[in-house]
Amino acid sequence: MSPAPRLPPAARALRAGDRRVLARLITETENDLPRARAVLRAIYPLTGRARIVGLTGPLGVGKSSLINALLLHLRQRGRRVAVVAVDPSSPFSGGSVLGDRIRFDTASEDPHVYVRSMASRGHTGGLARTTREVVRLLEAAGFDLVLVETVGSGQVDVEVREIATTSVVVLVPHLGDEVQTLKAGLFEIADVFCVNKADLPGADRARRDLSELAALGAPASGWRPPVVATSTSDGTGIPELWEAIEAHERYLDESGRRLAEERRRLTNEVVTLAEERFRTHLARDRSLARRIAPVLARRIDPETAARRWWAEIQRRR
Ligand SMILES: Nc1nc2c(ncn2[C@@H]2O[C@H](COP(=O)(O)OP(=O)(O)OP(=O)(O)O)[C@@H](O)[C@H]2O)c(=O)[nH]1
Ligand SMILES: [Mg+2]
User: Fold this and answer.
1) Do residues 244 and 277 both lie within one domain?
2) Average pLDDT, whole number, for the chain?
């Protein structure tokens, strides 16, 4: 019978846990190089099982600090974990946030932790794509738990839902007005709310307000996002935050939502990739100038021009 599918050498090294190969493949993926493409194709069947936890929220609310604290918590429990941070403005200490009581020296020296930062510079809407591909590389390298910190163009990155299996929206006390304006959007994104900096005044109030909102927006899905208060300064709430994330992952399995969500994400991914191809193809079409001329002369309107073009494309097939 057919042997196991043959993997390119770089993909085999990746699976064997070679970190230099992993690092190089991530860079090549960021730069969209052909070798990374080939590896991504080859490893795709090996992916899809990882827990991907996205943390998003306004600037400076403590996303990186929370990831450091979660890293520490998870390593104490023997979990292997990878971190992807998009454009972090603050460095990761690799889990040594709680006064260095447990140190990983540097994250790169702990074989069970991998931390990678990615620059969003130069990306135009391709960030979710690259992040997703980097997560797949990490999964092929044996990480079945990946934490992703994202910064959106707005205050909360809605694209996190296209990447993460559990999305954590991080807020801080006294975000009252912002929460009001973000409200609708927030509830579409958040599987878990985290009120960080709970050591500051107003944390209880913020937690109550959010809990009430979460109860009001009683979702059809059967999952009500829990609200967890944390403080990375003293570690308060970190085990509870992790428990809330795990509870959501259990819910995905028990309710059958995991597959539905994966279908939604992959549908969006394929449609987006196809759109990019169409767009490039259309923009390069030699007929473009001829089609624009009558629009420019106000003889036909843009919508009509587009509709005729589309009709011609369909006839040609
Ligand atoms: N009082 C208090 N300060 C905190 C807490 N967590 C983080 N901070 C501080 O908040 C600041 C921002 O923390 P970061 O972890 O860099 O926040 P971030 O959300 O990753 O920031 P960006 O990546 O720049 O959006 C730092 O000065 C942290 O020391 C907390 O629980 N309590
Ligand atoms: Mg950060």
Assistant:
1) no
2) 85
Supply the range of the domain harboring residue 229. Answer: 47-255
Could you tell me if 56 and 39 lie in one domain? no
In this structure, which ligand is nearest to the CA of 170? Answer: 1
Structural domain count, the chain: 3
User: Which burial class, exposed, middle or buried, applies to 315 when counting CB atoms under 10 A from its CB (0-12, 13-18, 19+)?
Assistant: exposed
Average pLDDT of the segment spanning 255-259? 95
Q: How far away, in angstroms, is 306 Cα from ligand 1 center?
A: 48
Does the C-beta of 197 come closer than 6 Å to ligand 1? Answer: yes
- Give the model's pLDDT for residue 159: 82
Q: Which of 25-34, 128-137, 180-189, 245-254 has the lowest mean pLDDT?
A: 180-189
Cα(first)–Cα(last) distance of the chain, in Å? 38
76 CB neighbour count, 10 Å cutoff:
11
State the Cα–Cα distance between residues 36 and 11, nearest whole angstrom.
9
Cβ of residue 129 lying under 6 Å from some atom of ligand 1: no
Q: Is the CB of 59 under 6 A from ligand 1?
A: yes
Say yes or no: CB of residue 232 within 6 Å of ligand 1. yes
Confidence of residue 23 (pLDDT cuts 50, 70, 90): very high
